[in-house]
Amino acid sequence: MTLAEIREKAKTLRSELRAINEVATPTEEQLNRGEAVMRELQKLDRQRELAEEEQRQRKLDEIPAPRAGAADYDPQIDGVPETREAGCALPVSLRSSADFPAWSRANVSMGKFKDVREYITTLATKPWDERLKGHGFELRDWESGQPSLGGHLLADTIANPILDLAFQDGDFLDLVRTIPVSPGAHSLSVKVISWNNLDRSGNTTAGGLKAYHVGEGATITQSTGALRFTKLELKAIAVLTFLSEQIQQATNLASDITTQMQNEIRRELHDNIIRGTGVGEPLGILNSPALVTQDAETGQAAATVNYSNLRRMFGRMLPGSRSNAVWLVNHDLIPELLQQSIPVGTGGSHVPLLNESNGKFSIFGRPCIATDFCSALGTTGDILFVDFNAYGFAMMNGIRVLASEHFAMDTLQLTLRAHIFCDGMPLLDAPITPARGTNTVSPFVALETRS
Q1: What phi, psi does 255 have (nearest 5°)?
Q2: Angle at which helices 156-166 and 116-125 cross, to 10°
Q3: Which helix (H) or strand (E) holds 368?
Q4: I need a surface site. Which of 165, 285, 382, 403 has the fewest CB within 10 A?
Q5: Which of 187, 439, 137 shows the shortest CA–CA distance to 313?
Q6: How confident is the model at residue 165 (pLDDT cuts 50, 70, 90)?
């Protein structure tokens, strides 16, 4: 059976299987036929793979000898080139540049562009430029051959550094208090029990326990603590995408897309932890009733931060949390912080507020993480002082990635799904009132809007 005959027969069987699936209440005979069709399709898949490999080997035998300087090009290793650029016999496809023969790799990186800047500028402003041909592939939804659906996929030597930079953002997901939920728990919710120790103005502990001095023979005054429950309801966060057979065969995208899907879920979780609404998603710190918002200084200019802001925020941190707390700042705040210094009096030396060591920053000895998950400069949330140990994050199994060749079989697409069941929220539902003092404290401190 030829490859064309195999594909035609598979198409007919898929149509038959689709018709059976559309029956609301299929008969036993129809169900049996459906199972038989599935077995035939699986057998045809194996036949197709053998036929395609035989066809590929036949083409390899027909490849002409490479030009001078291409002695290390081996078609058995490097595969069949789809086309060759004039003058350099360069195979043009969407494989990794490492898969190209050594003699041609220098041509892959920049081609007709003098540098990355020119490449990116042309890609953004003149996507029709003839020089882009051979360096990209028109696609969206990971499907080839449909220019109207997307833009150019960057050449590997250019795209990979961009992807690396894109995910070098401040990562704080690993700092939260993780509460694992067993798949056999028969529940998608978990209760976190803690002492209701939010008001210590009465010189008590654990929501009411109090110590008394007792004289000889005197009766001890009884006191009782109080418990507080935080309920986490696991919800699904998912990414669904498709990868066409053509792209799977022509690129190394399949091996990378699952990583990108997991990165997208982690990005969403980071965003939820900071600004989630709590409705169908985790409750974020900025929407938590436990958040303490420090006032700006009198007469403070818009979109600024100063030494007084930070020292007051440090003072509003729950004392037991200071050794765990980290600073989160928007990237736009870094230049403002770099020009701040600690006042040391007349004739003193400049003492920077933002300190750097081996590429890592700190403020008052606590780590400072720059991230675009913080709010825009000048608004509440552009700088946070947070103890993530006071943020509960429940999850089941972590992020899972599943693949199916059957869901979109009739369109020759592989279906990929990544998902996680999780929920999160601050473990306090109000700031803590200290036994003495005028300001409440909390593991979550923000600076109010300066406008």
Answers
A1: -75, -20
A2: 90
A3: strand 366-370
A4: 165
A5: 439
A6: very low
